[in-house]
Request: fold
Amino acid sequence: MSEASLSPGFAHPVRDAQAAFRALLEAAARPGTIASLRVPAEPPPCLPPAMAAVALTLVDADTPLWIDAAAHEAAVWLRFHCGCRIVADAREAGFVFAADASALPDMATLDAGRDEYPDRGATIVLAVAGFGSGAALRLTGPGIDGERVVSVEGLAAGFVAARAANHRLFPRGVDAILVSGAHAMFLPRSTSIEEA
Amino acid sequence: MAVLARAPEAALEAALAALSPAPAWQVLRGPETGMVMVRGRMGGSGRAFNLGEMTVTRCAVRLGDGRIGHAYIAGRDGRRAELAAVLEATAQGAVPPSLAQALASMRAAQEAERDDRSRRAAATRVEFYGMVRMG
Reply:
């Protein structure tokens, strides 16, 4: 993507980012629920709208960003609107964006924070094909009364196993946000995921 | 850009109105107002220090043909920032003659004002003479 095709971000930067932040917060508090986000009118074509909204809401100059090859066309847009540094090495990233679910780097290599500062762990934002169909996952943990069964279409093969290894690092670990269209599902590190 | 950033709104509006065809633009960011820290240096070799914060309004626009203009102006006037960004984008590549003329007159007005201010300041300068003690 060149500068010439740069498109605007949120129509109302403060109000829309706050609305999206609130929706993400709710989604993080209730893992497995589907949040619908306020999205920019013309996100870069290679990013799902919700991924663009997450970038505008959470990513800034203090959060190094890693993006996969499929999202690379959006680098100019992300740099312009978020003012973030785009890093080549996913291990240094605070946010890891994969517009192609299979291009997600090995979760074990990502920054999981330290025991003193577990909050510094990276957050993965992963594009999936859709919610409500596909592989069924059983979620348990904080924010879930008993268990919650969700289905996600287009999740990469090793995701559940990698997440299980990540869950064992608690309180360290990486958090994940699955996005599709304008919808997002938050899977914090505290949530345990099994194939149902 | 410096000339556009200092120009009054009326001059920017006039320069935009003189353009034909009138440019169409889309706002990419802003106009939004924020603060920037202005740093200063005492003399040529002093250390940098924080002089204070100032209010700045910025705007970025894209013209129909993809040219992008940026503007940062002092103060909170969003319209001025937007106009300055549009004219900045228009001035990229071949500058339309009417805009070149407008820029030249804005520059002349700003230089005249600066000269006038320097002259008035110079008129109030107090010269200190040092006395050399003899013997």
